[in-house]
Amino acid sequence: xxxxxxxxxxxxxxxxxxxxxxxxxxxxxxxxxxxxxxxxxxxxxxxxxxxxxxxxxxxxxxxxxxxxxxxxxxxxxxxxxxxxxxxxxxxxxxxxxxxxxxxxxxxxxxxxxxxxxxxxxxxxxxxxxxxxxxxxxxxxxxxxxxxxxxxxxxxxxxxxxxxxxxxxxxxxxxxxxxxxxxxxxxxxxxxxxxxxxxxxxxxxxxxxxxxxxxxxxxxxxxxxxxxxxxxxxxxxxxxxxxxxxxxxxxxxxxxxxxxxxxxxxxxxxxxxxxxxxxxxxxxxxxxxxxxxxxxxxxxxxxxxxxxxxxxxxxxxxxxxxxxxxxxxxxxxxxxxxxxxxxxxxxxxxxxxxxxxxxxxxxxxxxxxxxxxxxxxxxxxxxxxxxxxxxxxxxxxxxxxxxxxxxxxxxxxxxxxxxxxxxxxxxxxxxxxxxxxxxxxxxxxxxxxxxxxxxxxxxx
Length: 459
Known about the structure:
Blueprint: E1 2-6, E2 9-14, H1 18-25, E3 30-35, H2 36-47, E4 57-64, E5 75-83, E6 86-93, E7 96-103, E8 106-112, H3 118-128, H4 134-138, E9 143-148, E10 157-166, E11 171-180, E12 186-191, E13 194-204, E14 207-218, E15 221-232, E16 255-257, H5 260-265, E17 267-269, E18 284-293, E19 299-307, H6 313-320, E20 324-325, E21 328-330, E22 333-346, H7 354-359, E23 366-367, H8 370-375, E24 377-379, H9 387-391, E25 396-404, E26 410-417, H10 421-432, E27 435-436, E28 439-441, E29 444-446, E30 448-458
Parallel strand pairs: 2-30, 16-22, 23-30
Antiparallel strand pairs: 1-2, 3-9, 4-5, 4-15, 5-6, 6-7, 7-8, 10-11, 11-12, 12-13, 13-14, 14-15, 17-20, 18-19, 18-22, 21-22, 24-27, 25-26, 25-30, 28-29
């Protein structure tokens, strides 16, 4: 595996026999676009276990942290599904267990544990309702554009969206992304609080269903769910759906999304946040975190979203853990709640040398073209060509946007376009470790913003 560079470009070349065909085909590939709504509708029709044309099934799945098998991120899922109005689901994890039975208009829900973890909810969503807000995506005036090779092979197609969050006093933006693979199946979905990758599609009746799901809720944490059993059911046992004591809606565990303003109204105590000096990057800007609260108002999970200085994310996390909140209720019943919390930060920079700190330009980063930024690149590690991408013959260009601080350190890296989520993750991981020469304005270092193309090529 080798890399070749030109300004603004990082090339990752992976030897494989398939590459000869792809390289020749690249001279005459074509593009095809379809409305986002139509592409997403087809993807879900073909892959959704519980959508139109669904078969009755028995499913088992396991969730784990592959790097730490003894961690709390461990669960077993068992579902018997006879139809939208007749199913039974059991979830067994460390600290939380749940059994739900739906039979017509009756529901039985038994919970053991005071908190249904968000990371676990996300795998349930991914398996049974992979795109929870389909109508919002279908309403976008957007198109999915796929590269088509002369042999008919199609590359991944992605589309993104943004939304405003915060309060009247503090506003920011968060981002969502959706990618379909070359076969038109869901490959990647990301929105605040829920992000998932979909792999190993296999036939199930007339559908094609993902058998492996991966989530990266925070830096350094990779969770994997695998479907270990998926069988057709011809004659489900009626006793599986028997309900002796229905659970009223008020007694069920609810999890709701709420705006930041509602969370702030529930605050009983929150100490003032003190932003420490930063080593590099912007000293003023916005920072977004995603929180999940239990039914007593305790914040149980906190995940970073996007920020103008990632160095301050841990400060925001520690601050949120000190919040004391009253419980949120729905029709008088306590509910779990999720929300995006936006902060505005103002701080200063720890100087590397006093003279340099005093003279460096302040204000927003300077926008420079990719070629100029590429000439400042001193070193970068070789991005790793993901094994799954190699086996699936995935290739293409990942386009990244980044800020380079006055010390030449990349930050706030964002994916603008990608042929596959695994390729973009590898590109981002490598670029985080890159180093640049400072960009000088009148002899003084300044922050810059630019883009980098990372080409993954099969040879």
